[in-house]
């Protein structure tokens, strides 16, 4: 008889891990989100006798991830975690926006049980398909005693949902952590070797997220660069922009041509958060600025959540 809290729920959202190509040697010309999560599980013999439950929530190329899917995913994860027979949740996802989904879920749910996102850099049809091992490792992490919070498991490494960043366009080990952080743990032949604490925090709750069909706050990311033209920022302002994350050069600086439109945004009550476009590091000297230690993409999510909280 199956003991309590042993089941792992695997939620499929599409991505390269469920992708297919007409050629086993084509690692870039594939179509994402073609295989069901049930078929991904069935392709791994080591999972055959484990207490698993599969749910197909979406079939997206994660470059096309949207707010409505985020809300449905967060509520589905929350529902499964509340079940007494569920030990943890695994989510199959595309790599392109994996870091954004992981950050959102950790901030909204801050779960006491493990929520493990996994992905692949090669489609399921590839000779060197990395999805099966990643999924097997993700289930192993979700089953390990003491694991909690939202983490990502890719290429044998376990990353915090609050720190995850995609760092490479092609390699199988395409992820890292910022600012200046390393993995939380590694998976070695199904066993977890932990280095740092699991992500924690206070759950904002899924009630904060707009229902399907309702708008999320309009927040954009703008990168400062040489020769930037400020007309796009002015156009966003006129169109009703509700928040801006500025991916600054270096340690939080921006081109002087943005001075006037940024001041106009602030005077209109539109929040402007600074981050850096640098791959590592945080804005030094800005300890109290929200977003200063986040990637531009995580800062955008944090600002949206802040605006949703302010709306009450």
From TrEMBL:
* Keyword terms: Hydrolase
Protein name, as recorded: Asparaginase
InterPro entries recorded: AsnASE_II, Asp/glu_Ase-like_sf, Asparaginase/glutaminase-like, Asparaginase/glutaminase_AS1, Asparaginase/glutaminase_AS2, Asparaginase_C, L-asparaginase_C, L-asparaginase_N
Q: Which residues form the Asparaginase/glutaminase C-terminal domain?
A: 219-309
Q: Which residues form the L-asparaginase N-terminal domain?
A: 7-194
Q: Which PANTHER family match?
A: 60 KDA LYSOPHOSPHOLIPASE, L-ASPARAGINASE
Q: Which family does it belong to?
A: Belongs to the asparaginase 1 family.
């Amino acid at each position: 008889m199956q003991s309590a809290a042993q089941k792992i729920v695997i939620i499929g959202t599409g991505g390269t891990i469920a992708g297919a190509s007409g050629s086993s040697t084509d690692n870039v010309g594939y179509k994402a989100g073609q295989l069901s999560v049930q078929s991904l599980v069935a392709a791994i013999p080591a999972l055959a006798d484990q207490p698993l439950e599969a749910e197909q929530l979406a079939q997206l190329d994660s470059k096309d991830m949207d707010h409505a899917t985020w809300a449905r995913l967060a509520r589905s994860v929350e529902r499964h975690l509340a079940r007494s027979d569920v030990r943890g949740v695994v989510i199959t996802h595309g790599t392109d926006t994996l870091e954004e989904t992981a950050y959102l879920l950790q901030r909204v749910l801050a779960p006491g049980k493990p929520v493990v996102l996994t992905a692949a850099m090669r489609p399921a049809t590839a000779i060197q398909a990395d999805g099966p091992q990643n999924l097997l490792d993700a289930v192993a992490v979700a089953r390990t005693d003491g694991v909690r919070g939202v983490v990502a498991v890719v290429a044998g490494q376990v990353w915090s949902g609050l720190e995850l960043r995609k760092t490479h366009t092609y390699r199988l080990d395409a992820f890292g952590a910022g600012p200046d952080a390393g993995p939380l743990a590694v998976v070695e032949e199904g066993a977890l070797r932990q280095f740092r604490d699991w992500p924690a925090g206070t759950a904002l709750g899924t009630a904060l997220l707009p229902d399907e069909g309702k708008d999320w706050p309009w927040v954009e990311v703008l990168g400062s660069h040489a020769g930037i033209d400020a007309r796009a920022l002015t156009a966003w302002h006129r169109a009703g922009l509700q928040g801006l994350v500025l991916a600054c050069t270096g340690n939080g600086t921006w081109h002087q041509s943005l001075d006037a439109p940024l001041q106009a945004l602030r005077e209109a009550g539109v929040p402007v958060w600074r981050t850096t476009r640098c791959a590592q590091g945080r804005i030094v000297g800005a300890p109290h600025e929200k977003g200063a230690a986040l990637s531009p993409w995580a800062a955008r999510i944090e600002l949206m959540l802040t605006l949703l909280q302010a709306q009450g």
